[in-house]
TrEMBL record:
Residues 1-20 form the signal peptide. Keywords: Signal. It comes from the Bacteria. This is Trypsin-like peptidase domain-containing protein. It holds the Pfam family Trypsin_2. Coiled coil: none annotated. The lineage of its organism: Bacteria, Pseudomonadati, Pseudomonadota, Betaproteobacteria, Burkholderiales. SUPFAM superfamilies: Trypsin-like serine proteases.
Amino acid sequence: MPRRLFLLSLCLAAAARVAAADLSATIAAVKPSVVGVGTFQRTRSPGTVFTGTGWVVGDGLSVITNAHVVPEKLDAEQKEALGVVVAGAGTAFSFRPATLAGLDREHDLAHLRLSGEPLPALRLGDSDTLREGRDLAFTGFPLGMVLGLHHVTHRAMLSAITPVIIPSYSARQLDARAVAQLQRAPFEILQLDGTAYPGNSGSPVYDPADGTVYGVINMVFVKGLKEAAISHPSGITYAIPARHVRALLQRASTQ
């Protein structure tokens, strides 16, 4: 091997090791800010039901998740409560009640508010600065509480920035929700090459180097719009850009 190529290969290997070390440190810093979202009912077995992933932002009492993760109705008679599930180790976790502070159904985002002691918060980045090819990562609970509430992290590259829905070749491929979204003017979403699962809905998509959040994983709402005409799921992962999270938080601050 020519000396120049040999030196280049050494540099690339060293860079890869540094990147891996950075991500390891970032994951450790991000995990305390990533929570489960669900409901608790004392008379139910199990008492806690997991519905998706959320993450802490702002003053440590705000949690962002997908709107479809938040139950539309709670069983008031049985005192069912909305809240977040703070992971411990394996099957150890605690439930903290929360209130719904804001809902953005168009972008499938929800803002929950906790009471009590704040949790570590993640920094919200400017998603408008993202470019295709950017390395990202996301952390959440792809299996929910089935095997214990374990944080799972995936690497992902930003494969494309695309409209949330594209006009179909046939009207038969459009459902009522897709038609409504077309009438509202489609917004752009982040298309990732990492593999996410339904429990990842609401997971933060962040910079592997410093944990800055640039998007929110969405595994149900967006797929129903983007892939409505596909008979078999593509396996592509989508995320809502962080600009819509910022707008949701700003609405709450002005109320």
